[in-house]
Hints:
Elements: E1 19-30, E2 33-45, E3 50-54, H1 61-68, E4 76-81, E5 84-85, H2 91-101, E6 102-106, H3 117-127, H4 132-145, H5 161-173, E7 179-183, H6 191-206, E8 210-214, H7 218-221, E9 226-231, E10 234-240
Parallel strand pairs: 3-8, 3-9, 6-7, 7-8
Antiparallel strand pairs: 1-2, 1-4, 4-5, 9-10
Amino acid sequence: MSKADGKLEAEGRNVQPLVRFRDIRKTYEMGMVTVHALRGVTFEIMPGDYVSIMGPSGCGKSTLLNLLGCLDKPSSGNYFLGREDVSRLEDDALSTVRGNRLGFIFQSYNLIQQLTVVENIEVPLYYQGWPEQESQAVARELATRVGLGERLDHRPYELSGGQQQRVAIARALVNDPLIILADEPTGNLDSSSGTEILKLFDELNRQGKTLIMVTHDSGVAGRSARTIRLRDGLIESDVRRQ
């Protein structure tokens, strides 16, 4: 069983939400102006869910993803990750949550150009103090899992965009996170590479991983089981496909 408790084993099984947002608000002070990025957002995400977040520019998508990823704290409201209210944790505690429970995939990959595929995947484990031999073994296994078994010693500049994103996905998986958070993960890829990445997401979700993805592309969002649309800092719609 994964950290996320996998998929529901039977209809009606009593599984607790993995994410609970309760009246989350986020404001920013910009000079004399107060910007209300989120105006009272409430929703739940269950273990094994696959959610797309959509909406026009400035609607609060990035703010929401940053809060989900514990990269920022809400101005008010409560964010429960599992049973823990992480909305008021101090920065050091939030850093621990990010390192142990969350995996991040970015549009720009955020790989270190001087490091090999294996070394890039190892980075989170290095900061957690893993022995080098163990972390290398895990990184090699994950690189193979995402289809890069023949590219272990290559550096990012020697890889295609799709291959670089696969490295980023493997890195996001290396700590066996509760949630994978993806920010426009196919935004810099051609259609063929983007499709391959989405197929990999589908497979991860079938294996029980919880995925939350920000996208502006309705075709990409159509791969997920559920789409939350934001407008003006509020949830405009929350639709689950049958």
